[in-house]
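Quick illustration, no need to memorize.
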Amino acid sequence: MLKVGILGSTGRVGSLLIDDLENDANACVGSVHVFDELKKTLPKDAVVTNDMKAMLEACDVAIDFSAPNATEELLNTVIQTGGNKPLVIATTGFNEHQKNLLIEASKITPILYATNMSLGVAVLNKLVSLASKTLEDFDCEIVEQHHRYKVDSPSGTALTLAEHAAEARGLDLDNVRVSGRDGVIGARTKDEIGVMSLRGGDIVGRHTAGFYNDGEFIELNHTATARNTFSKGAIKAAKWLVNQEKGLYSINDCLGL
């Protein structure tokens, strides 16, 4: 039985991970890291701790749906202790230092990092790359919608979609991304990639990548209707990752895309 450690166990998706693992025939909760009160029933032998090292020692693979600062502590723990437990990381909103820590830790242990654990979004990334390259003269705009409580903007998923669109055109996203328009700003530039955010209600997640030209346009859309889309995807990724060598992987590697 694969023992899974959970970072972010009191969050929305972390809580669903506990539920999904309860019904999994091949994996179970081995440990959970908590910053506050955990209101879930766990297996009798599961370790509940606020110590990152103890959480890692009590599992075969860890899944992280937390916050950037918590992920940073996790990665530092792996680097400092030379830990070799595989990590599935789904936290978004990293700064450059945290992104570098991710790369350094992947030199020690296998890490699968994805801004979205949905299998459908993985396919959407592929489609966006194809559309962006094929429709190079079309204007590319990406819109993401999430619930009112989401703290980072644009979403990590939207930025990943934009990265695929930019790379397919040989562009650096940092040089062409626009995430806000207001006032008399002039005409849209040719290489511009718009990444816009909407927040409201209880929207789980909706992403639209549009390619617009004179006389026609195409929109590629993914809508998540339940959060356990992400928890189930992460469990699938964890089962795959435990058999991999050290290195940095994506959800596409897991799915063979």
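The chain is about 35% helix and 25% strand.
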